[in-house]
Structure formats: C-alpha cells, structure tokens
Amino acid sequence: MKLGALYAYTGGKAFDAAKPSVLFIHGAQNDHSVWILQSRWCAHHGYNTLAIDLPGHGQSAGPLCTSVQAMADAVVAALDTAGVGPAHIVGHSMGSLIALELAGRLKRARSLSLVGTALPMKVSDTLLAATREAPLKAMDMINAWSFSSAWGGFSHKPQAPGPGFATPWGSLQLMHRIHIKNGADVLPTDFAACNAYAPSEAVLKGIDCPTLVVAGSADQMTPPKAGKAVAAALPAARLVVLEGAGHQSMSEAPDALLKTLAAHLAAAP
Fold it and tell me: Looking at the predicted structure, is the pLDDT value of residue 169 above 90?
C-alpha cells in the first residue's frame, strides 16, 4: 500500500477506516520486513497494519531524512495524505526515537511502544566512522552486537528455527540489500541521526498516551538499564524486559514480543 510517499506493508488486508491502526517503524538500515510476524498478527486480529519503509529505505523513494525530527515529519505527511488519524505506534531502535517525536511533538499516538530504545542513543566514533568508510564491516559489527550470545554470532550456519525468525545472517542480508538497492548513504545517515538526536523536554512531557518500553535482557546495543531510564523519563511508562533477547527482539524473541505488544494494544483506549 502507498501511504502518501511511503510504502506500507498491510499484512495482506485492505485498509479499513473503521479499525484502529498500528504503525510499525523500523530501525537504521532496515525496512518493514523486520516486523513481519508482529505486523501480520495485527492485520489478522482487528487492526490496520501499516509497517512502513522510511524515506530512502526499502520500497520508499528518497531523499533520505538526515534527522529524527525530519523522519517523523515525513511519516506524518504520509499519514495525512492517506487520511490516517492517530495510531498505535510501535518503533524499534531508531524507529523508537521517531515514535517519541510522533507521540510527544506531533500528537499522533493512541499508544506508544518503544522496543530496543535509549536516550540518548549515542554511537561510538569508531562505528560512526566505519558506517562511512567501511560500511560492510560496520554491518558485521552491528549484527554481531544485535543478537544475544545464544545465537553463536556468525559461527553458526544460516538457520531459520521457525516462522517469523530472522537470524543474524538474515539480518545482515537485509542490511546488504538496502545498501545495494537504496545506496551507501543510508547507513551513515541513519546512525548519525540516532547519535545526534536529543528530544526536547516538551516532547517527553507531551507524551500523554499509554506507553510501553521493551528491552532485551541480553541487548548490547541498548541495554536494559537504558530502557529503564527511558521508562523513568516518560509519564506513566511501563518497562518489560524480555529474558534472553538481544537488540533484534522482533526476530530473536518474536512470540514474547508479540504477546507483550498485543496486551499493550488491547489495554489502550
């Protein structure tokens, strides 16, 4: 489905204005496919699914947005063009920062779910340099840190334990595909935007919807203590820690994440 200028995966269902919508926002150098299990479940359980590709990612045309605020503005423009009102917003990593802007500054959230988040979301100088100068090496580093040690890093052969899973190898291939299809600027632009983002006090205080923060207990990118700090900074936010999950909990703990998200959506007005 075209959501204004953006592509949105709908789980195979036509948009129905009478149903509540769930907006899924992916992280850096990713696209809508990281949400495949959770987004498809929503589409078949009473919600409109809108799992978007951000500008210059996946099936959405560019140009790239160079700041989190600009990404949020682009999403709102797409929602307005398609006539989509406030939605339940679910964001992962960089997408969680965009979700914060959508909820606090732009007032587009019925509920908010932040997965694998941190404030600030600082990136090391070494990794930032690698995204510009050695992007394939940077992608290896990112994926090695994005999954718990239970996966054995890249020492294991490619594997797919069940529906909804994307192993470290699958995640790496997604990043390579975006690098080839969408260009070498995506990775450094996304990571620089994460590194630079600092929400205003007004954004944080402006979040007035039910809020869920989900952290993986084995997340090396945005560890549980970072999720706890985010939850403490937001009005009446609730923290859930998924035991054994790393940063890519959508694929590493898909059922646990889905159960947590489904309960949050059901409890929201």
Answer: no
